[in-house]
Amino acid sequence: MNKDLSGLLKKILLLTLCVGTLPSCKKMYDLQPQDSLNGSQVYQNIYDADAAVLGIYGQFIGLADRYIILNELQGDLADITPNASNYLKQLGNHTVTADNPYADPRPFYKVINSCNDALKNFGIMHQSKLLDDNQYYQRYSDIGILRSWLYLQVGIQYGTVPYVTDPIADVNDLNNESKFPKITFDQLLDKLIAFTGTIPTPYLAQNTSVTSPTLLVANSNYILKDGVFKFFIHKKSFLGDLNLWKGNYLQAASYYKDVVETATSLVAGNDFDIQLYDTYRVTNDNSGRNTLMTTGTTNPWPAIFSNPLSETETNRERMWILPLDQNYNANPFLALFSSTSSYLLKPSALAINNWDNQTRSDGGLGDRRGLNGSYRVTKGKPEIAKYLYNYDPLLPLSTKTGIWLLYRAGALHLHYAEAVNQLGRSQLAGVVINDGFYTGFPGSVSSYNGVPEAYPFNFNAVKPSGGINGNWYRSIGIRGRAVNKNVTFDPTNLVTDTENKIIDEDGLELAYEGYRWPDLLRVALRRYATDPSYLANKIGAKFDAVGSADASTVRARLSNKANWFLPFKWQ
Asked: What Gene3D superfamilies does the annotation carry (predicted)?
């Protein structure tokens, strides 16, 4: 094992585990680990394997601000403030130079290399019977999928990249293309799909205290009930996204359907709560309380981003979420978004216009996921609010704890809609983004050409008088939950128009969560043969909205596919 990696891993393990668990953690954290440890000394038992897993997640959390900056500022919904550096301006204008620190791929590859090291040593432990089959595959699958997620991000940002699965002593060696040749993004997708296909299906489920009793450690942020198992990457959702990128739409839809049916196949356990009609389904339970649906003057939708990790209603929505504790791992989003801090990024004028121009079900204007939902205005300054709800600038030392929400049901449903639309199920996709299955299909059962659908397109939302309700009878859809009017679709250009509406809804629902640039890029790659200016026009519209003279330059630059990716330059 690389000695530097060993020391870093042990430090990060302490950082990760100490949050609210051990009174002597500060003293322990001050101890300096030995630099001479090798793999056989570090990986001696299951607790060492768990230390590796949690240590890697500690490293991974360090990518939070980079992930959001790259995926939002390059899109059309975020903009720079006057406080932003020239490097951030370059990202927003798509004029990134080789010395731009945000374009440095090393932070991603450092975590990837840690994953490679752990996976190698898990294999050695398994062969030596230090880990049994279940212990091995739980940890191998988690870190293997996390590494694949990282590689997908690297591919999205840089296009052509080196793909390395063995640990290396010095991550800077990856800059030597003669030793580590680059592969195309499409080739990378093939390799990721091939690798993830080797993971046994039972280990694609989430880690729980039953499957991984030594790995799950509750703390003040992650109490055991319905929280801690969401610390780890949501594997099937990622596999859905991976296949969506590749164009394997049926496989993608199948993975997504597996996830939205979590409550159909599982029951609640000691450390997670499963609600048959609500978990990951985007619903209204009609209780007046246990819902994220906007009603009257009440707008509970922002609670997705502010509620405690163990809160029931929002955990029906949250799927993969990491804590940012003020005492150990700094919350980087405060400096990015708070007008009382560095205030580097803000919502774009285009994003605000998009929310303002939505028509609600009551006929009024204004999407309530916009103002005081995704963004707010503080002393005249628009702030991206999803990361600021628990922060009080008057109490800055005690309210810095936050969350990094990496995946949730809203994203899952929208990506499912994108996949099934490509399979000719445009009506189904429209129902998902509008007001749901109960009102969206005749008889409240999904159908295709008048025939009830089979898996992964089947949804039963019936609500018979005195009978058994279908599992989807509470479905209200993405726009239904926001209490917005349904959008309509052009029957003469159905697939393309439906996809346009899905991407529009992506922006309204998922702004600033790290999806925007990837979603736009994926559609642009899909349409390149028929609409090569799609991406240029989407990003150019951000500059049009403020009357910027840069609009034409940005459009011209993004009309060239080669400019869709960052320069892969080691710094």
From this structure: 1.25.40.390
